Amino acid sequence: EIEIQSHLRHPNILRLYGWFYDEHRVFLILEYAARGELYKQLQKEKRFKEEKAARYIRDVAKALHYCHKKHVIHRDIKPENLLLDMNNNIKLADFGWSVHAPSTRRKTLCGTLDYLPPEMVSGVEHDQAVDNWSLGILAYELLVGKPPFEHQSTKRTYQKIKEGKVIFPAHLRLSPEAQDLIKRLLNVDPEKRLNLGDLPSHPWILKYAPPSSPSPSSLSSSKSVVKSSSRPLRTTVQQKVV
């Protein structure tokens, strides 16, 4: 984590300035994210309007595209690992599951259950396209308020992920452009997922988060610093697939 994050320089990636340790702990010196986790903002608002969600997805995609060009796979995209600075700019954080993989494909099952891609669930090799899938899950959760394949049963969650059938709540009336972007990211075939380099030119992004659009801070209902609060923990997974 330290080795990878210390070499990343991007406006939407949390900066790691240094580290030190004692006999029991390792301390990281990180960029200050005044507004805390995106998850807490989402919990407060339940779900985001398309303008706000599109700006966040656009900026996370830029951060991930940069990582992929550096041969880094994050492997744990979720609202809890996205922080906000004082201006509500996204900062990709927590590279604990990340890996530098310039040539090899991976077989480790890891991450957060609701965000796992079909290839991990099926136990086959995966590459950077796992982040594209997780970005699609994130987009859905920001707009709907929960992940698309969420279920009380872990087994059923795995089944729904492998099926990849996305259902959009009719009463939310999500735009056709938003639904198209999510479906293209949540393609069960990793090779056919929307390329992150092409995402900024997708109709949904151009409509709701064009290059000249204001920062998400102007769309926030709260100007105060996010404080720590209790929240339910999501199921995380780690398993070496043989």
From TrEMBL:
Compositional bias per record (Low complexity), positions renumbered to this chain: 215-234
Ranges for region Disordered: 211-242
Residues that coordinate or bind ATP: E31, Y32, A33, E80, N81, D94
Reaction equation(s) it catalyzes: L-threonyl-[protein] + ATP = O-phospho-L-threonyl-[protein] + ADP + H(+); L-seryl-[protein] + ATP = O-phospho-L-seryl-[protein] + ADP + H(+)
GO molecular function: ATP binding; protein serine/threonine kinase activity
Species whose genome carries this gene: Paramoeba aestuarina
Catalytic residues, chain numbering: D76
Domain Protein kinase: 1-205
Listed PROSITE patterns: PROTEIN_KINASE_DOM, PROTEIN_KINASE_ST
Name of the protein: Aurora kinase
